[in-house]
Amino acid sequence: MTHNTLQLSGTNTECNDEFAVDLGEEDMEDEPKPLDHYIREGLKQLYQEQLLCDTIIVAGGEQFPCHRMLLAAINPYFRAMFSSSFRESRDGEVLLKDMDPAVVQMVVNYYYTEEIALMPEMAQDLFVAASRLQILPLLESCSRFLLEQLSLENCLGIYELGYAHSDPALFQQAKNLVTLHFKNLSAEDKTFPNLNPSTVISIISLDSLVVSSELAVYRAVWRWVTAQGTNRFSFLGQLLAHVRLPLLTQEELSMVQSEATCYRDLRLRWKRLNRQERLQQCGGLRRGMYTTCIVCVDLFNMEGPELKTKDFQVAYFDPQRGTWEKLPLLKCLYCARCVAVGDKLYVTGGVHTDDTYSDTLHEYCPLRGRWTQLPSMSVARASHGFLACDQKLFAVGGWCRYEDYLDTAESFDLSEKFWTPIARLPFSLSHFASVALKKRLYLIGGVTDTVGSWYASRKVLIYEISTDLWSQVLLDNECYWSGAVAMNNGIYVVGGYFRSRGRHHNERWPDSGNLHCTRKCFFLREDGKVDKNIYIPKLPIELAGAAVVRWKHRIYVLGGENTYLYNDLEGENEEEYYNTVYYWEPGATKWTLCQDRLPFTSWGLSGFGCTTMKFPQKPILELFRKTSVALTAIDVGTP
C-alpha cells in the first residue's frame, strides 16, 4: 500500500491516473453494500418465497401474506393495530373492507419493492387506499400523478378526492376547473349525479362558481336529487339551503314556481326584500354574476384643456361590449385616486375646484347604488399613491399644496374602518407610478423637492408590508407621471416623462426642461430592477399621465398628455391631451387602438384615477334597485 501511495503522488500523470481509475474500480467492487440493502432485498425474497409471514391482509376474499414488522415500520396505521390488543394483533389477520384486491396487491408490492405502476384507471382507487392506510410517500406519488392527469373529464372526481381526503393541491386545482365549467358539468357530466351529498354541498356553496344566473345552481340540485328517483328526496331541503334563491329574476321565479306545484311536499316561502335584506339573505353574488370593467374617476366634461370645472364624472368601461356607463356623481375633485377591492370602489384625496385639497375617503357599492363617506385620512393628498393589499388600503406620498410634497403614508383597515400611520417614505414624492405586488408596494419614479428645487426621481421605492420598511432601487433614467401594472410576476411601466439631453430651462419647474414625454415601456422584476429581456413594444404616441390598468391579460392605456417646449428662447410649454384608448396583450408586437374614446370630453384628459373593478351584471342589478318580492326558501316535507 505504501508503494501504491508513492506512485499516486509521482510525476507520471498519465500512468498514475490510469492506475487510480483501476484501483477505484476494484475498491468499488469490493466495497460492502449498506445494511438497508440487505434488509430490503431479504424482505423481498422472504415475501416472494412466502417465508416467515406472520400476518395476512384480506380484501375481497383474497389473502395477501405479509410481515407485520415491515407493515408496522412503514406506517402508523398498522403500527397502532399490531401494538395494541386489537383482534388483528392476536389473530394475525387484517380485513380491509371495501378495498379492491387489485389495489391491495399494488400496495403490498409497493411495501416490499418501493415500485408502483400508476395507471389512470387505478390511480384514484390507489390514492384512496394510500390515504386510508396512511402511506404518505405513496399518497404523494398518487397526488402528483392525478394532478398531471387532471382534465375537464375527470375534474369532478378529483375534486371529490381532494375534498374528502384534505389534499389542498388536488382540491384547489380541481376546484378551478369545476367552478369555471360548473354549468356544463352539473348539467351534462355523468360524474355529477354520483357525487356524495357533502361534495355537492361544498360545490354549490362556492362564491367562485362562474354562473350568470342562480338558476344553474338550482337546476344542478334537481338533477342530482332526481338521478335516483325519490331515494334522494330527503337531501333536497339541505341542498336547497345553499341555493341563493333571492338572486332569481322574476322570469326564473315563475319557472321555479311552476315546477314546485308538481311536488306536493314542497312549499315556497316569499318575502318582500329591499337591497340590504336581499344581499344579507343570499349571502353574496357568484363570481359569474360579475363583469370586470375599467373604472375612471374625475372624468371632467371639459370645454378646453383647463381642469377646473364643476362636474365630477365617474364612469366604467366594459371592454367586451365597448360601452361606457355613468356612476352616481361624487363631490367635484381632480387628481383624486381610486382602487377597487372586489365589487367596491374607493376614492380618496384630490383637489377641489376652489384649490383646496381633500382628505376624504369614499366607498361606492354597485348593489346599493350610492357613495358612503368613510373616515378621512390624517392629511389631505393629491396625485398620491393609493393601493390595496390584504384587505387594507394604502395612501402614500402625494402633495397637499402647490409644490408641497409629502413623505407620509398611512393604511386603512377595511374591516376595522380606521387609518394607521406606516413608515415614512425615504423622501417626499408625488406624480409616481404605483402598484402592489406580492405584499409589497412599489413607487416608480415621481417628482420631489428634497434638494430645494423640483426634480424627477431615478428610484423605485419598495415598501415591505410585513416589516413596515422601505428600500430603494436605482433606475436607468429619471422619470415621472408614468403608469404601471403588476402582471406576470413583475411590473410593466408605461410612458411618462424621461430625462433627455436637452438644456432647456423652465422657471416654474427648474429641472423640467431636461425631461421629455416618451413612448418607452419597460419591465421591472420583483426586486425592482429592470429586466431588459422582457419585450414591450413602444406606445404609438408619446404619453404621460395616462391611466394604465390591467384588464384580464391586457394592459389598457387611457387618455394622457404630452407637454413639450415650442419656444427655445422663452422656455414656453405647449400641452396636448388625448382621449384615446389603447391596449396591449403580452406577446403582441404592437399596441391596438380601440374605437371607443374617453367619454364626456373631446379634448382629452390626464392624471385622472383609474382601476379595474367587478360590476354586477344588469339582471342582478335590477333585483337590487327597489324593494320587491323574493323567494327566500323552499320547505320540503311541509304540508
Automatic annotation (TrEMBL):
Chain ranges of the BTB domain: 53-120
Keyword terms, alphabetized: Kelch repeat, Repeat
Record-linked SMART domains: BACK (SM00875), BTB (SM00225), Kelch (SM00612)
PANTHER family noted in UniProt: KELCH-LIKE PROTEIN 32, LD33804P
Protein name: Kelch-like protein 6
